[in-house]
Amino acid sequence: MSNKKSIRGAKQTSIIHKKIIHRKAPKQTRSIERFQKILEIAFQTIDEIGYENTTTDIIAERCEISVGSLYQFFPNKETIIYTKAEALYLELHELFFRKIKLLTQKYKRYSERLIQEILIAFEDTLSEVKGYSILHSILYTHPSLLALDQLSNERFAKSLAKELLMPLYPRVTKSKALLVARITVESVDAVYRSLVRSGEHSRRQKSKIMGELAIFLNAYFKTLT
């Protein structure tokens, strides 16, 4: 029975990922500009009329190109969204760890203020990466996006262990630092997701929730000292 389930699951995964077909990125300037425009217009369209209503026909029309020209770059809507999502996650990672590098130069050891500044840096990064809020709103429309989101969290955890935890706690083993980083990333991600889903939170309520998250992280990080 378990073998049948695993085979069925493998087939379903295969069907899911057949929709995401990666093609080589263009190299000529004009093609690169068109490629990027399609990605930007697709997300703008989703923001305006929703994921389900967005089609390749509409995206092509808004880009002022034919559907055939769009298909030269992307075979379907899912691939457009996935490609843009990949870029957003990489931008998020790069921007956040640029901020982390500055914080590690400022703080040579653990402090409660450091935790607060890390959370502020993360919140600022989310607001600075244009299109991330749109990506979050459509995350559950396609299994490949969820898989990409998990991959992003794993990348964040590895970088957090390397760039922050191991320099702060030189006696902590690499495996322990990675475990702590993984729990930290998943915890912070879960809290931020709940805040985004519950749009009715006031600024004061959000501040209280973030304050509680800081208390939680401080208590956790103190166990490493």
TrEMBL record:
Source organism per UniProt: Leptospira ognonensis
Record bears the keyword DNA-binding: yes
Entry's Gene Ontology molecular function annotations: DNA-binding transcription factor activity; transcription cis-regulatory region binding
Entry annotated with the keyword DNA-binding: yes
Pfam families: TetR_N
Annotated region of DNA binding: 55-74
InterPro entries: DNA-bd_HTH_TetR-type_CS, Homeodomain-like_sf, HTH-type_TetR-like_transc_reg, HTH_TetR
Gene3D superfamilies linked to this entry: Tetracycline Repressor, domain 2
Keywords recorded for this protein, A-Z: DNA-binding, Transcription, Transcription regulation
Occurrences of domain HTH tetR-type (ranges): 32-92
Protein name: TetR/AcrR family transcriptional regulator
